[in-house]
């Protein structure tokens, strides 16, 4: 039953499939009159035109939706970037002014320290000069 059974089974399947294909080909290739064929072609063309029109309008609608969504997102992103840029610029200005204030404070502290040191040095020199003059007179 191994070889004979398989061959019979394959033959029956092939016959069945061939019959279906032959019936379908006969239906599609059956002769029609010229007017019937033109009517069928015209009907198919109208159906194809309608489907194309629907697909085109759907594509335009979706395209318009996508464009509006893109514009909204672009606008919101632009606004966000502008806000963040403004915040960063404010922080930079604040830091710069704080830095300038600190530099002025340090400059004033350094100036007064230098003046104090200069005054102390002057006093020490004057004291040394007096002591030297006093020892020279004695």
Overview of this structure, please?
By secondary structure, this protein is mostly helical. It has two helices and no strands. It has helices at 2-29, 34-137. 0% of the residues are buried. The mean pLDDT is 85.
Quick synopsis:
It is built from two helices and no strands. With 138 residues, the protein is mainly α.
Give the tally of β-strands.
0
Task: Compute the number of helices.
Answer: 2
Question: What is the mean pLDDT?
Answer: 85
Cα shape? rod-shaped
- Gyration radius, rounded: 51 Å
Going by helix content, strand content and strand pairing, the class is mainly alpha
Largest sheet data: none
How is the topology of this model organized?
Blueprint: H1 2-29, H2 34-137
Main traits of this protein?
138 residues, mainly alpha, rod-shaped
């Amino acid at each position: 039953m191994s070889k004979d059974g398989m061959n019979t089974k394959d033959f029956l399947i092939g016959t069945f499939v061939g019959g279906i294909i032959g019936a379908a080909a006969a239906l599609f290739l059956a002769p029609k009159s010229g007017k019937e064929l033109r009517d069928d072609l015209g009907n198919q063309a109208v159906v194809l035109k309608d489907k194309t029109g629907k697909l085109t309008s759907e594509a335009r609608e979706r395209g318009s939706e996508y464009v509006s969504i893109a514009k909204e997102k672009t606008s919101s992103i632009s606004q966000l970037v502008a806000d963040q840029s403004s915040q960063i610029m404010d922080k930079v200005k604040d830091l710069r002014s704080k830095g300038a204030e600190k530099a002025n404070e340090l400059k004033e502290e350094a100036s007064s320290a230098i003046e104090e040191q200069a005054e102390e040095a002057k006093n020490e020199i004057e004291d040394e000069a007096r002591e030297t003059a006093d020892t020279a007179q004695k």
